[in-house]
Amino acid sequence: MSTRIAINGLDRIGIDILRIISENKEDIDVVAINSTGNPEMDAHLFMYDPLYGVYRGDVKYTDRSLVIDGKEILYFQENDPSKLPWRDLNIDVVIEASGESNSNDAAGKHIYAGAKKVVITSPADNVDATIVMGVNHNTYNPEKHNIISLSSCAINCLAPIAQIMHKKFHIIKGNITIIHPYTVNNSTLDISHIDRRMATAANLSIIPTTTGVARSIGTIIPELQGKFNGISLMVPTSAVSLADLNIMICKQTNVVEINEYLKEMADGPYKGILSYCEKPLVSVNFKGNPHSAIIDSLSTMVVDGNMVKMLAWYDNEYGYCNRVIDFIKYIASK
Fold first, then answer.
1. Which catalytic residues are annotated (predicted)?
2. Which of 41, 88, 164, 169 is deepest in the core (most CB within 10 A)?
3. How confident is the model at residue 156, as a pLDDT?
């Protein structure tokens, strides 16, 4: 029996999740959508995606639904999640992709409305669990975990690599730089903003900003708590991010050993999560890649045997959305 889901928020992440489920004919039943838009506009945005192209199937709409490849998906425009009819619709999982309900209390309104589980597509406070597929998904407890955060796209990239490296080489400390495309939170013209850097036109500048990845790694991998710091650079591209991970390790190593080890992990226990690239590719080549992280093996460096630099690409939308779908399937298997 298919898992019955509802998507709350049909912005970039919500649309990508709906597209992947529809294109791949996943065994997931999208029953309903709650959006601040309207069916006509959201049908258009779903059909004509500026990053991933035109949807190859059939998209229609009514005043109360989207119809994708003949399947009708109920459409709501409710600002208060506690008033949504999740109980009547027998919703198993709500994918909370609005960006507004990133706490236990806010996401809990979906539980109050009758949903069995809520999966938040961003870091969140005071939730029952924060899960990264391939890293700590086996800690999920269906009896205890009803409101779950899947952290961020950056953590889904970095946490598997950090876990892999810590297992073999023992990380002493590290520093992270995230090179990230501008997002809906940026403006393409200078505006008034509490953060003077974020007030700058994102399509004209590289913008340094803060990131929570350092703290979040310690949440996912407790033995690495407090061992990282990091910064993010917003750049004028539309898709695909790059994580620059610099770590000091306990054991002496070299580039060949590290790359061979990463390739072994990508082909083995982290298959589907981690990918390994030996070609001289650039960001646009990884658009639509479903992996959480793609190791750029040509960029691996080692200084003095124990200072290691690694680069990892990730599609900050498409890769992350695939992990959300993987976790929905994982929930269904329990």
1. 153 (nucleophile)
2. 164
3. 98
Identify the helix (H) or strand (E) that includes residue 17: helix 12-24
What is the DSSP code string of 157-217? Answer: HHHHHHHHHHHHH-EEEEEEEEEEE--TTS-SS----SSTTTTS-TTT--EEE--SHHHHH
Closest CA to 183 of 239, 232, 230: 239
Amino acid at position 70, single letter? G
One of 153, 157, 277, 321 is an active-site residue; which one? 153
Active site residue 153: yes
The one-letter amino acid code at 33 reads I
The pLDDT of residue 97: 97
Contact 291, 274 (CB under 8 A): yes
Instruction: Using the predicted structure, report yes or no on whether residue 12 has a pLDDT greater than 80.
Output: yes
DSSP-derived secondary structure letter, 333: H
196 is in an annotated binding site: no
In terms of domains, do 120 and 163 share one? no
The count of structural domains within the chain is 2
219 pLDDT above the threshold of 80: yes
Same domain for 157 and 123:
no
User: Do the annotations mark residue 121 as ligand-binding?
Assistant: yes
Cα 206 to Cα 200: distance, rounded to the nearest angstrom: 9
- Expressed as residue numbers, the domain containing 311 is 153-316
Is residue 253 annotated as involved in ligand binding? Answer: no
Model confidence at 177, pLDDT cuts 50, 70, 90, reads very high
pLDDT category of residue 199 using cuts at 50, 70 and 90: confident
pLDDT tens figures, 252-266: 999 999 999 999 999
- At CA 192, angle to CA 186 and CA 196, rounded to 5? 75
DSSP-based helix, strand, coil % in the chain, nearest 5: 30, 30, 40
Whether 297 and 171 map to the same domain: the answer is yes
